[in-house]
Structures are given as C-alpha cells and as structure tokens.
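Per reviewer request, we include the raw input and output of the structure prediction for the construct analysed in the revised manuscript.
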Amino acid sequence: MGKRSSVVLAVLAPGVLALSLVACKPAPKVPARPTPQVLVKRMQPEPVTLRSELPGRTAAHQIAEIRPQVSGLIRERLFTEGARVTAGQVLYQIEPAPFEADLEQAEAALASARAAARLSELLVQRYRGLLPIRSISQQEFDRAEAVAAQDQASVRLRQAAATAARIQLQRTRITAPITGRTGRSLVTPGALVSANQAAALTTIAQLDPIYVDLTQSSADLLRLRQAANAGQIKRGEADTRKVSLVLEDGTAYPQEGRLQLSEVTVDATTGSVLLRAVFSNPDGLLLPGMYVRAMLAEGVAERGLLVPQQAITRDRKGAATVRIVNAESKLELRTLATSRAIGSDWLVNAGLEAGDRVVIEGAAAAQPGTLVEVVDGPGAAAPRAP
C-alpha cells in the first residue's frame, strides 16, 4: 500500500505542478481601442454671393410689323429677306403714278387759290384808298374784305390738301421704322395691298441688344426681400445686378447681361413674377424664342456659413444634421436649417455658429458623445479609421 501510493504520487506530481504554474501565469492584456481621428472644418463667416437659376426665353429688343399705309400694287421689293436693314431704308415701292397725279392736282388747285387770294387782297387795298373820299360805300369795302378772307382760307385749305397728297405719295415708299433683321416677305411684286391691312408685309426684329424674360417664384422673391430687410443679405440696385446665361446645348453664353426690370404684379395662374434682363448680342447668336437658363446674382450674404455637402446627413424626418466636435473633444449631433446649395457646399441659416468644428470625414459609426482626436481640414492629413 505504501509502495503503490508512492508510485501514484510520482505520476501525478508533474501534472499538478503544471496546473499550478498555469494558474499562476497572468492573463494577457487586451490592447486599448485607439481614439478615432476626425477631419473637421472650422466654421468661419465669409461673403457668399447668392445666385438663382431661372428659366427664361429670349425676346427681340424691338419688333416692327410692316404694313402699307396706302392702297396700290407692289411694284418692287428693295430688300433681301433675312438681311439687316437700317431705319429709313426703303423696303417696298408701291406704284406711285396715281398719287403723283393727285399731288399735281392738289398743287394746281393751290396755285389757283393763291391767285384768287392775291386778287382779293389787291382789291381791298384799292378800296381802302377810295373809302376816305367816299368813292365807295362802307358796305362794298366790307364785302371786299370778307371775300379776301375767304380766299385766304381757301389757300390754306388747298395747301393742306397738297400736303396730304404729298404725304400719300411718300407713303408709296414703305421704309423700315427700326434697324434690325427682316423676316420673310409675304408679298411679291404685283400684289395688291390695301391701307392698314391686317396681314403684315414682313417683320423687322432688333436683336442687338436682346431681352431675356425670366420667371421667378413669388415665394422666392418674398424670401429674398425679407432676408434683405433683416440684414441677412445685401442686394445691389436692380440695374447693376449681373446675369449670366446657359444656352440650350449647355454651353455658357460669352456675354454677361444685367437685370433691367421686375414686374410689379404676380401671375395668378403660375404664382411667378416676370423679370427682364438685357444682353448684348453682337454676333446674333441669340434669336427670339430660344429657351435659356439664367444665373441671377440676387445679393451677398456677408457672414455666410458654408458646410460641405459630404458632412450633412438626413434624419428620419428629412432634416439636415451634422456632427460637430464640442469643447470636450466629443461628438455632438446638430440639426441645421439650410437654404441652398453653393457649389459643393450648403449655405446654413441656423444651427451653427462661427468657430464650430464640423466633422467632414472619420468616425462614421461613432455615436454622439464619443471622444475623438481632431485633425483640422481641409488640407490636413486623412484621419485614420477607428
């Protein structure tokens, strides 16, 4: 019995010793999780130019519909369709012969009236010398003066008729009232036209400069005016506000325009206000009726706060939120009020103040209250992942 106990002890002793050694060995240390780094942007107020993109259509600066003022046959067309004409240039010639005859007749009647008036005037002068010596009666002298006055009135009447006939003859030469480009001619030589007819012979449009009519929501206009009254933005005078254009094919129009007027009434059907801008069009690139998009400078927010779009997320209600790093270097969730996109940033109206550190990158899964290490940006090294 004693011998067997000695053998058992000899066999179990190494195992017991090993277990005791394992029990005395310290547990391995779990490495601490590194503090996540975040890239932030410090909010600094800066002047921000506010622009609105508005739809619009081009319209001629001036447009004239050419109609005859006298009736007759078109003898000749004196312009090229689609060409540029100047004010006063003859476009059509109506057959002038009947009007020339009317003028000659009126001038002949005027000459006859002037002769009769001269004779009456001489008779009055002669009677005036005879009246003191009672060679004629006062009644005869008065009758001579009345006839002379009638003859003078007849001269004026005939003179007016001659002037009217001369005007009618001049109207046989249909001239351009404005400088611009002509459209197609709707009549050919030999066509019979009438005075003040409904159908125009052709049209002339002045395209340099050219108008661009824009539509802006009355709600946006009201919001801008309220912001200007509150001092949030600074607006220039209407005639100094710049406008740039983007054409139908997406290219930028090289000339910059200016806002000329804003309608004083709101369209009841669309709820919009008409704005009119004027652009230089020396090459005739813009034609009336073209659809364009205009970038209108509405004013300047002198202390605007811009947050990169990548820093903004949306909550379940759709409100814009950002994460900021507070004074304790911990994450904090903020809800923002944004008004518009400025390039790759959002303009913030409320929710941030100057000096706030907005998280741009890093610690995407970190919860509010997490301690973080700040890397100022932009231009700083990229943060390491938590």
